[in-house]
Amino acid sequence: MKVPKLIQRYCPSCKKHAQHRVIQNKKKNASSLTYGSKTRARLRGKARGAGNLGRYSKPAVTKFKMAGKKQTKKTDFRYECQVCKKQHAQRKGIRAKKVEIK
């Protein structure tokens, strides 16, 4: 996927359209300290059987299994406004094996 170095985009801080420089960031992995993992960690040492633990009292459903690893990661572009020099990220990434900023 080829992306131009400069793109005309809307800048939320300037509140108008301006030229933006495209910068590619390394996609960060999701945090291991999610809400569910914290709750499960809290319940791990306690004795089960003292009341209902909601969705954590039932065994995990193993019916649906993911087929395998995804082949690509989503792109993480940052856009730097040429007027106010502020950066903002894109809403959602596009899956691409190779990204080239030209």
Tags for this entry?
102 residues, mainly beta, Nuclear Transport Factor 2, Chain: A, four-stranded antiparallel sheet, two-stranded parallel ribbon, 1 helix, elongated
Can you describe this structure?
The chain is mainly beta and 102 residues long. It has a domain at 1-27 and 72-102: Nuclear Transport Factor 2, Chain: A (Roll), CATH 3.10.450.80. The protein is built from one helix and six strands; from the N terminus they run βββαβββ. β2 (6-11) and β3 form a beta hairpin. It is elongated and about 60 Å long.
Largest sheet: 4 strands, antiparallel
Distance between the termini: 10 Å
**How much beta, percentage-wise?**
25-35%
State the secondary-structure class. mainly beta
Written as H for each helix and E for each strand, in order along the chain, the element string is EEEHEEE
By CATH, the architecture of the domain at 1-27 and 72-102 is named: Roll
Radius of gyration: 22 Å
